[in-house]
Please model this.
Amino acid sequence: MEIDWSAIDKKWQKKWLENNDHEIDPNNKEKKFITVAYPYPNSPQHIGHGRTYTIADVHSRYLRMKGFNVLFPMGFHYTGTPILGMAKRVEANDAELIEGFKTLYKVPEDKIKEFVEPVKIADYFHEEIKSGMIEMGYSIDWRREFTTIDPAYQKFIEWQFRNLKEKNLIVQGSHPVGWCPKDQNPVSQHDTLGDVEPGFTEYIVIKFDLNGIKIPVATLRPETLFGVTNIWINPQVVYQKIKVNDEIWITSPECARKLEFLGKKIEVIEDILGSDFVGQSAKAPHSSDSVLILPASFVKSDNGTGIVMSVPAHAPFDYQALLDSKSGKNKSINNDLLKNIQNIEPISMINTEGLGNIPAKDIVEKMGISHQDDPKLEEATKEIYSKEFYDGILANNTKQFAGKKISEAKDEIKEWITKVGSADILLELTNSPVKCRCGTECVVKLLSNQWFLDYSNKDWKQKAHRCFEGMNILPNEIRSEFDKVLDWLRERACARQHGLGTKIPWDKEWLVESLADSVIYMAFYIISKYVNKKEINGNDLTDEFFDYVFYGKKDSGEIANKINITKEKLEEIRNEFLYFYPVDSRHSGRDLVPNHLTFFVLNHVALFPEENWPQEIVVNGSVLMAGKKMSKSMGNIIPLRDAVRKHGADPIRLTILISAELLQDADFNVEAINGIKNKLESMYENSTKTKAEEIPELEPEDKWILSMLQNLALNVSQSMDKIRFREALHHILYDFDSKLQWYLKRTKSKQRTNISGILHKILSSRVLMLSPFAPHIAEEIWEKLGNSELASKSTWPSSIGIEIDSKSIQTETLLKSIIEDINNILKVTKISPKKITIYTAEQWKSKAYNSILKNVLDGQTNIGTIIKSLIANKETEQIKKDPDFVKKTLNDILSEPVELRKGRMNVGQIDEKQIISSELSSLVKNDYDVELSVFSESDSEKYDPKNKAKAARPFKPAILIE
Ligand SMILES: [Zn+2]
Model:
């Protein structure tokens, strides 16, 4: 049956709106406060964005049906530089950007013209995103909507910043930041192409001495200085002789530029080709000996200083380059130099259990590496590095450090080299190249006299750790990532020169950065409702107002008076805050773990009392398009609104959710949408056929299917509580279908006409379970089923109020397995049956069966032990005649699911002969059009021409087909 998805979407969205169903105020019910990271409106949302919001909406709707008063609000994050960059590109008539607006985003041309104003871009896409969210059926309380440039919000951020500064959590200082040299602005994840967070690598620079000129080498392993045999320089690179403060250094030009951003005064003296240094010697800081400077092609000018020290015993690159040098094939090495090189041998200086004396040699040979440009060297380096870092002990030739572990001595050695005046620090981007949204490659800059959030503060970290410990994190496997992030977090720049947002209240030249003004705004959803209703004026808000609403500080009457509202209104706002806070669940994509989500917790613990700390974080993976990453350049981005127009909201919601659990990447493709549509259409069709008739006296198959329904309700509820939505959907939509088919087969063969009431009950329960996921079609089906209340306002069917009937489960399992056995026999023998005879096991076998089952449930599966105990018992000693029986029965039991075994124990013996006679005859007649005869093995007069009866076992009757 074809469904007009769009008409159904509109019909129910209108109904929810008319009823103000999603406008949530405090009431006497228990509350839940669900929030999602608000969108940055610089483009319309695509399918990928839909995932997090859909998960949060399903979560909200589920909790509402469970009886909670659930607030799910939304705001819009205007803060930051990307929109500014876009506006500039529009002004410059950037053809690519404008074409994208026109063709991909379908922005009208007169609107694009207005986009030279950044706010116009944000406003346009804000409305676009909001419409998409409404069309997706998200149950958002739109009365609380705001943007981060609203006057009231700016007052709120000023309050936040003054508060953090008072607590000494915002400090002024010099710290490294990711930096765009063109914009002259720090960059973080929101400012970069591809949303990458710039990470830093700190190198130690060790300065070798060449007749008073410094040859600086950058390394992550200063401890290996004791194993240095020579220095590598790239003979092809043009290096620079530069004046660094008062010293003369030789570095690559890239390094000279990096040093400048790190605050060093640099003066370029002249260019010198790398090959000019080949064959010269420089003195190491730890000894009076000099080491040779040799040529190597693996040394890259954009890495470190462009010069490295060689530790061939422990660094695979160095070992291989030394071999290459010794080979005599390198033209820039003359014969005299070659002789000297032949004398260079690796110096081992770290002992590591499991590694040889010269580990670099071993791994190069093991991996079959034959030249220094082999990419496998990276892997080899990593392997040795981590083994030596954790298990390596410094050898006797490391002087005062001998006997220490690398992981412990690293910092001491760093300190020692620095003390003798021969070391410096070089910071590089770990994940370079990182590009700013303006296209410029970013660098590390040492920013001085800047405002930083002091995320390196130990007490602050400690408090945040405590908050995480008490929090629910879904999925829990991501918990350790948060701990790691907290541990490595350092001071973080929180001011920007350009962009939209709030000015730093005490330093108006600077704006609050976008990952700093988006950490406690969940509290603002309480206030925004009153601003939007014009009950308070955003421009009037003061720090005292926020102190009262969030902390209850000072006298409400006095504060209310100052901001022109009544004391009662102010107290109402405070009470609403107390009612909704803390945040019960924060939903976000995985990419926000290392920044936003961690900052969210840090700022809450800094600014709110413990009872208002966040309760839960839910993290989800991204969405792939037919197995591929979505990107503009791949041309596989589907705007969310387009998809909804084409397929309807519910099929999109389900397709996004059903392919993956939280942390996995979801895959979106057209076949999947069609599969979902077919499924929903068939449920819809069934709803037009089933009537709410009275439920008859229950037959075995009725008890069974209702037990299965009860099981479904329990399983789905469990999945929902863990936000395992993929699993829940599979239970609701697919797993139950095979059961329903068996039920329909059973009832059809019995020619029953009184099952409509039961089918109605089943479909009703499934539709309610489907309602949080596919709210529109669920309402439509619910209405067709004759309900006048909304499905979304009904109670979640945690239980359908029926006790699980274990006996019916045993009965139906038995019948199903007999039908399967008959089908298998027919498949093998290829006969067309004329007569079917079934033999059930005799009494002593049932007793033996129960005894074996009890053994298995008690953990005893040793066949010898079981046989002994059976023989010892008079009731079962007959197994002596048939020892094979025990083995086969034990296998029968072990091949059944544990639940079924337990059920069998509880139910005890069932009368198989009676059940098969009364329930299976009609099925056999229906399926094969033959008569069924049933005998017990112990019947004295039975039809048993092939002597089959003796093979019967409990739950495994013998079958004769003729
Ligand atoms: Zn830039």
